[in-house]
């Protein structure tokens, strides 16, 4: 690791001068730069103050943009600089005035650290195939649907059954198209958009992308070294292997994670600052309404939601949770994640989350129970409806139930459970004890 401490305070976006730092690479390596920075007036939830966008150049050539979405900070932002040759290199950081929020305030950079991974490092192989993202037109201008993190998984069976040596996933602040916000909270327990973007099959050095319509197709686009270049192409953040030349690049440095026995939303628990970013985007875009009803596309304050994660087998069925809250009189009141709307039911197995809004002022300590209701899956187009009582659901664990605190950080209920609980698909609630 080659770290350089700085103490740079730039008084305003208009007056800011570029910052250049040199670093040494000893062998051909994949290089990550971790920039610790903040901006004095940044607030992802406030118009005209959303973020500063920084333009990064390596050895004078454009590399990518970095958006300071985490507020005043300073906070650490790891980015991929790609494969670099041995020798002395430079990273230049400059505010992109045209793309930054006008009232974001002064930039502070407190640390720039460089980490090199040569071919002997265990991280080298999966870092060298990490994709670079080109921004979807309109998102940068609106400060909407920004990529927050990228993570990688090993030995994953992809959506089409293909075995991937590595699979890369991006968490975006939200999606401007696709699933409405209220259904996202009910059936996924979050308002971010978590999308598989690239899978690398065993024995190959060219992979597949998740394209428009959630279709996996062979990647046939450009690369920067061994890094595929992907254009975010749809309102629900599917990608393409071609796109506009003028689209700016984001290259968040991926991290490796094992999600065995948990949901992909667990990545947000590992880096919980993402809950604040997505919640603030919901406020800024007018998706928050204290009186929001199911089906309106809006939600109450995300901090009123309790979100449950369970794991189990689901076949030809859908399900919903009822979240139990201890009232002051000692009785337990139940709040359904589907909110009386069949479209708000969970339709997948493995590990899954669902959320329900609770009364104002409810704390995680008051969440004391969980029930499950199961139903036959809806009829698919051109097929008859499944017979009553068909399908099966077996719950095997409840990993966590949590609410967001005032700072949008998850606060857990003490409720967890492991076992094997069959649930009939007759809609009757089955309490997990």
Integer-rounded radius of gyration: 23 Å
Globally, the shape reads globular
Number of helices: 5
With strands numbered from the N-terminus, the spatial order across the biggest sheet is 14-13-12-11-10-19
Helical proportion?
Answer: under 10%
Largest sheet, if any?
A: 6 strands, mixed
Question: How is the secondary structure organized here?
Answer:
Elements: E1 2-10, E2 19-25, E3 29-39, E4 53-58, E5 61-67, E6 75-84, E7 87-95, E8 107-118, H1 124-128, E9 132-134, H2 139-142, E10 147-157, E11 163-172, H3 181-187, E12 193-201, E13 208-211, E14 215-218, E15 223-224, E16 227-232, E17 239-240, E18 249-250, E19 255-256, H4 266-270, H5 273-284, E20 305-315, E21 317-326, E22 332-336, E23 350-357, E24 367-376, E25 392-404, E26 410-412, E27 417-423, E28 430-432
Parallel strand pairs: 9-16, 10-19
Antiparallel strand pairs: 1-8, 2-7, 3-6, 3-8, 4-5, 4-7, 9-18, 10-11, 11-12, 12-13, 13-14, 15-16, 16-17, 20-23, 20-25, 21-22, 21-24, 24-28, 25-26, 25-27
């Amino acid at each position: 690791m080659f770290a350089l401490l700085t103490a740079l305070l730039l008084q305003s976006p208009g007056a800011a001068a570029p910052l250049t730092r040199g670093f040494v690479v000893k062998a051909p390596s994949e290089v990550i730069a971790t920039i610790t920075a903040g901006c004095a007036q940044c607030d992802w939830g406030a118009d005209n103050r959303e973020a500063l966008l920084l333009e990064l150049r390596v050895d004078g050539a454009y590399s990518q943009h970095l958006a300071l979405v985490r507020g005043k900070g300073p906070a650490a932002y790891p980015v991929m600089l790609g494969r670099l040759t041995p020798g002395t290199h430079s990273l230049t950081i400059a505010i992109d005035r045209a793309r930054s929020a006008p009232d974001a305030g002064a930039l502070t950079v407190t640390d720039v650290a460089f980490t090199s991974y040569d071919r002997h490092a265990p991280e080298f192989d999966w870092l060298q195939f990490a994709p670079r993202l080109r921004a979807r037109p309109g998102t940068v201008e609106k400060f909407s649907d920004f990529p927050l993190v990228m993570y990688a998984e090993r030995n994953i069976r992809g959506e089409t059954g293909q075995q991937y040596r590595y699979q890369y996933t991006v968490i975006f602040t939200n999606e401007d198209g696709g699933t409405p916000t209220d259904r996202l909270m009910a059936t996924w327990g979050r308002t971010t958009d978590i999308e598989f973007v690239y899978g690398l099959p065993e024995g190959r050095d060219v992979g597949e992308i998740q394209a428009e319509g959630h279709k996996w197709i062979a990647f046939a686009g450009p690369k920067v070294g061994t890094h595929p270049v992907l254009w975010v192409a749809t309102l629900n953040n599917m990608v393409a292997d071609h796109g506009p030349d003028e689209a700016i690049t984001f290259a968040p440095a991926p991290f490796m994670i094992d999600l065995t026995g948990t949901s992909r939303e667990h990545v947000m628990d590992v880096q919980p600052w993402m809950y604040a970013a997505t919640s603030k985007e919901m406020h800024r875009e007018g998706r928050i309404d204290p009186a929001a009803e199911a089906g309106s596309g809006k939600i109450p304050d995300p901090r009123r939601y309790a979100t449950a994660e369970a794991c189990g087998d689901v076949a030809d069925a859908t399900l919903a949770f009822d979240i139990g809250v201890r009232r002051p009189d000692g009785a337990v009141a139940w709040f359904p994640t589907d909110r009386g709307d069949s479209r708000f039911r969970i339709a997948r197995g493995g590990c899954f989350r669902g959320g329900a809004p609770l009364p104002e002022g409810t704390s995680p300590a008051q969440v004391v129970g969980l029930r499950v209701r199961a139903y036959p899956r809806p009829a698919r187009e051109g097929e008859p409806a499944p017979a009553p009582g068909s399908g099966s659901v077996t719950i095997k664990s409840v990993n966590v139930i949590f609410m967001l605190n005032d700072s949008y950080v998850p606060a857990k209920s003490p409720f967890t459970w492991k076992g094997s609980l069959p649930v009939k698909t007759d809609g009757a609630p089955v309490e997990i004890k």
